Amino acid sequence: MSGERWRYIVINYHPLTQSPITPHLMNQSGKLIIFSAPSGAGKTTIVHHLLSKFNNLEFSVSATTRRPRGDEQQGKDYYFISQTEFLHRIAQKEFVEFEEVYSGTFYGTLRGEIERIWNNGKHVIFDIDVVGGLHLKRKYAEKALAIFVQPPSLEVLIERLSGRGTDTEDKLSERYAKAEKELDYAPQFDVILKNYELDIACKEAETLVANFIGL
Ligand code: ADP
Ligand code: 5GP
Hints:
This protein is an alpha/beta fold. It has one domain: 3-Layer(aba) Sandwich (Rossmann fold), CATH 3.40.50. 38% of the residues lie in helices and 28% in strands. The chain contains seven helices and eleven strands. The chain has helices at 43-53, 83-91, 111-119, 130-140, 154-164, 169-183, 198-213, and strands at residues 6-13, 20-27, 32-36, 57-59, 62-64, 78-80, 95-102, 105-110, 123-127, 144-150, 191-194. The strands form three sheets. A five-stranded parallel sheet has the order 4-9-3-10-11. A four-stranded mixed sheet has the order 6-5-8-7, sandwiched between helices. β1 and β2 (20-27) form a beta hairpin. The relative contact order is 0.20. The site of adenosine-5'-diphosphate has 15 residues, from α1, α5 and α7. Adenosine-5'-diphosphate is lined by residues 37, 39-45, 160, 163-164, 195, 197-198, 201.
């Protein structure tokens, strides 16, 4: 740890409990890599692939009021919290951005989560909805690369979403209804990444990330 990147000694706080972790040297050059798209486009799959390829990336764990799905784990996939707690954290201004992505279900990025990852000397990678993704891009400008994951068509998106087998019929309908509008946001992103063939999309994502973080 030497050179210009490391400037200030800071205490790292856990984003949810606020308990101090270990003192670290502040990373001045941390970046943000944002993956956005409608549910079912393949963001999570591509983000997991990138995390397995680059050891200087760390996933931004969002807070949400939805319940865990499948084998999702607290603090790994999300910080699962109650609506009361979520609203309290909004009032405390702890979110860099948050959205009521689906009616009655909130999702948000905690400021402390980004700081924790940068203080660990890593770049932050996000899996976040299109509105939240554009929010972060506007806030962090050239420190952020905003990538829109585009499925071949709305029909294929719907097939992928139902094929994933993790959502109830109600949840699926809610996600389909939102998807069409979300596809219209694509031109506002830095890059549109076509996820037609998964292998090709993963390779293209690797190249985009490597160029952006300067590998
Ligand atoms: P998101 O995180 O955008 O909601 P996921 O990564 O969960 O999407 O992908 C939705 C489903 O589609 C998963 O079952 C995943 O395995 C599958 N999938 C992702 N990309 C492709 C692809 N290129 N071709 C076929 N299936 C895919
Ligand atoms: P899911 O319930 O499928 O995990 O996520 C639903 C949607 O919420 C996805 O589009 C996901 O990317 C988005 N999402 C996850 N975390 C956040 C967040 O912190 N902020 C915003 N705005 N959206 C998020």
